[in-house]
């Protein structure tokens, strides 16, 4: 049975009494037009919002730097940290994201030979810089002396902080802050080891500095 209302339902006789028989076709059509207008207007509003969002996108910059001996040029959001550049753009995941606030040292790398917390360093400020990460220390299959010392001294447990510890240790040795275990501890104090391997870490750095 058809659910369509007869044409006569459009205009009930004048003076007719009794309960309404439901919305007329004219009412349904008018309502549909109104709803359609809202949908169209809503679509236009969403399109405008997307366009506005695109116009308000964060600015990006092109930066060229040398990472582990290889020249790399990338375009990044100006807010991108060196750590995120390394991990997300260059697929160098050895540097770890721990606190992301410069308090744990897990992200330590060398920039122009100096230790930095890569999570606090803006990538766009490193135009022309030379960056060394944990992936760039070994010479082929031959470990860097400090990497080997960490193995020899069993200076790690979970290993999450180890890349940052090693990079900081390399910087500490290059800076000449290895005259005593106390000095090493002082200049390595920015690197946190949640497993508590500090004694062995200091020993590894001391051993490597002595052999240098």
From TrEMBL:
Annotated protein name in UniProt: (2Fe-2S)-binding protein
Positions of the 2Fe-2S ferredoxin-type domain: 61-137
Pfam families: Fer2 (PF00111), Fer2_2 (PF01799)
InterPro entries to which the protein is assigned, alphabetical: 2Fe-2S-bd, 2Fe-2S-bd_dom_sf, 2Fe-2S_ferredoxin-like_sf, 2Fe-2S_ferredoxin-type, 2Fe2S_fd_BS, Aldehyde_Oxdr_Iron-Sulfur, Beta-grasp_dom_sf, TAT_signal
Residue segments, region Disordered: 1-24
Lineage per the UniProt record: Bacteria, Bacillati, Actinomycetota, Actinomycetes, Kitasatosporales
Organism: Streptomyces bottropensis
Superkingdom to which the source organism belongs: Bacteria
Signal peptide start and end residues: none
Record keywords: Iron, Metal-binding, Oxidoreductase
């Amino acid at each position: 049975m058809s659910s369509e209302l007869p044409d006569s339902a459009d205009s009930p006789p004048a003076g007719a009494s009794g309960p309404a028989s439901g919305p007329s076709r004219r009412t349904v059509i008018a309502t549909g037009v109104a709803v359609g207008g809202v949908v169209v207007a809503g679509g236009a509003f969403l399109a405008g919002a997307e366009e506005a969002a695109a116009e308000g996108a964060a600015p990006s910059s092109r930066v060229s730097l040398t990472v582990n001996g290889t020249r790399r040029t990338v375009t990044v959001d100006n807010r991108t940290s060196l750590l995120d550049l390394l991990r997300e753009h260059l697929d160098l995941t050895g540097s770890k994201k721990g606190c992301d606030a410069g308090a744990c040292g897990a992200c330590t790398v060398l920039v122009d030979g100096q230790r930095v917390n890569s999570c606090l360093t803006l990538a766009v400020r490193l135009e022309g810089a030379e960056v060394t990460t944990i992936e760039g220390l070994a010479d082929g299959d031959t470990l860097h002396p400090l990497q080997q010392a960490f193995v020899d001294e069993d200076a790690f447990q979970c290993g999450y902080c180890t890349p940052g510890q090693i990079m900081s240790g390399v910087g500490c040795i290059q800076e000449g802050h290895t005259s005593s275990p106390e000095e090493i501890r002082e200049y390595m104090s920015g690197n946190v080891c949640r497993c508590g391997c500090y004694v062995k870490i200091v020993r590894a750095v001391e051993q490597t500095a002595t052999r240098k």
